Amino acid sequence: MSLIDGLNKNFENRVRLGLMSVLMVNDWVDFTEMKELLDVTDGNLASHSSALEKAEYIEVKKEFVGKKPKTSYRVTQKGREAFQEHLVALEKLLGS
Questions:
Q1: SS (H, E, C) the chain
Q2: How many CB atoms lie within 10 A of CB 55?
Q3: I need a labelling partner for 47 at 20 to 30 A (CA). Which of 33, 56, 60, 90 fits?
Q4: How far is 93 from 77, CA to CA, in rounded Å?
Q5: In a structure prediction context, what are the per-residue pLDDT tens digits for the chain, which is 96 residues long?
Q6: Residue 37 CA to chain centroid, in angstroms?
Protein backbone atom coordinates (compact mmCIF):
# COMPACT_ATOMS: atom_id res chain seq x y z
CA MET A 1 0.00 0.00 0.00
CA SER A 2 1.45 3.37 -1.00
CA LEU A 3 1.50 6.39 1.27
CA ILE A 4 -1.11 8.20 -0.80
CA ASP A 5 -3.64 5.37 -0.65
CA GLY A 6 -4.87 6.66 2.72
CA LEU A 7 -5.73 10.09 1.31
CA ASN A 8 -9.43 10.73 0.73
CA LYS A 9 -10.22 12.12 -2.75
CA ASN A 10 -13.21 14.00 -1.29
CA PHE A 11 -10.79 16.31 0.52
CA GLU A 12 -8.27 16.95 -2.27
CA ASN A 13 -9.90 20.23 -3.32
CA ARG A 14 -8.86 23.27 -1.29
CA VAL A 15 -12.47 24.43 -0.80
CA ARG A 16 -13.55 21.04 0.58
CA LEU A 17 -10.44 20.87 2.75
CA GLY A 18 -11.22 24.34 4.10
CA LEU A 19 -14.90 23.60 4.60
CA MET A 20 -14.14 20.46 6.59
CA SER A 21 -11.44 22.21 8.62
CA VAL A 22 -13.88 24.92 9.66
CA LEU A 23 -16.61 22.43 10.51
CA MET A 24 -14.31 20.24 12.59
CA VAL A 25 -13.96 23.05 15.15
CA ASN A 26 -17.46 24.59 14.97
CA ASP A 27 -20.92 23.17 15.61
CA TRP A 28 -22.89 24.93 12.86
CA VAL A 29 -21.58 27.49 10.37
CA ASP A 30 -23.93 29.43 8.11
CA PHE A 31 -23.46 29.86 4.37
CA THR A 32 -22.46 33.53 4.52
CA GLU A 33 -19.86 33.02 7.24
CA MET A 34 -18.38 29.98 5.46
CA LYS A 35 -18.27 31.87 2.16
CA GLU A 36 -16.38 34.73 3.81
CA LEU A 37 -13.98 32.46 5.71
CA LEU A 38 -13.04 30.54 2.56
CA ASP A 39 -13.26 33.55 0.22
CA VAL A 40 -15.24 31.65 -2.43
CA THR A 41 -18.25 32.37 -4.62
CA ASP A 42 -21.79 31.25 -3.82
CA GLY A 43 -21.71 28.65 -6.60
CA ASN A 44 -18.32 27.31 -5.61
CA LEU A 45 -19.37 26.82 -1.99
CA ALA A 46 -22.72 25.33 -3.02
CA SER A 47 -21.17 22.77 -5.38
CA HIS A 48 -18.49 21.62 -2.94
CA SER A 49 -20.88 21.46 0.00
CA SER A 50 -23.28 19.40 -2.13
CA ALA A 51 -20.51 16.91 -2.90
CA LEU A 52 -19.66 16.57 0.78
CA GLU A 53 -23.33 16.22 1.67
CA LYS A 54 -23.75 13.50 -0.96
CA ALA A 55 -20.81 11.63 0.63
CA GLU A 56 -22.62 12.06 3.98
CA TYR A 57 -19.66 13.98 5.40
CA ILE A 58 -21.67 17.10 6.21
CA GLU A 59 -25.26 17.91 7.09
CA VAL A 60 -26.96 20.85 5.41
CA LYS A 61 -29.81 22.60 7.19
CA LYS A 62 -32.05 24.97 5.24
CA GLU A 63 -34.51 27.13 7.15
CA PHE A 64 -36.14 30.53 7.08
CA VAL A 65 -35.22 33.24 9.56
CA GLY A 66 -38.05 35.70 9.22
CA LYS A 67 -38.56 35.78 5.47
CA LYS A 68 -34.92 35.12 4.57
CA PRO A 69 -33.57 31.66 3.73
CA LYS A 70 -30.64 30.48 5.84
CA THR A 71 -28.35 27.57 5.02
CA SER A 72 -26.05 26.11 7.67
CA TYR A 73 -23.55 23.28 7.74
CA ARG A 74 -22.16 20.86 10.28
CA VAL A 75 -19.90 17.84 10.06
CA THR A 76 -21.42 14.37 10.52
CA GLN A 77 -19.81 11.62 12.56
CA LYS A 78 -18.93 9.83 9.31
CA GLY A 79 -17.35 13.04 8.01
CA ARG A 80 -15.42 13.61 11.23
CA GLU A 81 -13.96 10.10 11.09
CA ALA A 82 -13.12 10.32 7.38
CA PHE A 83 -11.43 13.70 7.80
CA GLN A 84 -9.40 12.51 10.79
CA GLU A 85 -8.24 9.48 8.75
CA HIS A 86 -7.28 11.84 5.92
CA LEU A 87 -5.24 13.98 8.31
CA VAL A 88 -3.45 10.91 9.67
CA ALA A 89 -2.60 9.88 6.10
CA LEU A 90 -1.26 13.37 5.38
CA GLU A 91 0.90 13.26 8.51
CA LYS A 92 2.32 9.87 7.45
CA LEU A 93 3.07 11.27 4.00
CA LEU A 94 4.82 14.31 5.48
CA GLY A 95 6.78 12.17 7.92
CA SER A 96 8.29 9.92 5.29
A1: CCHHHHCCHHHCCHHHHHHHHHHHCCCCEEHHHHHHHHCCCHHHHHHHHHHHHHCCCEEEEEEEECCEEEEEEEECHHHHHHHHHHHHHHHHHHHC
A2: 17
A3: 90
A4: 24
A5: 687 888 999 999 999 999 999 999 999 999 999 999 999 999 999 999 999 999 999 999 999 999 999 999 999 999 999 999 999 999 999 985
A6: 13
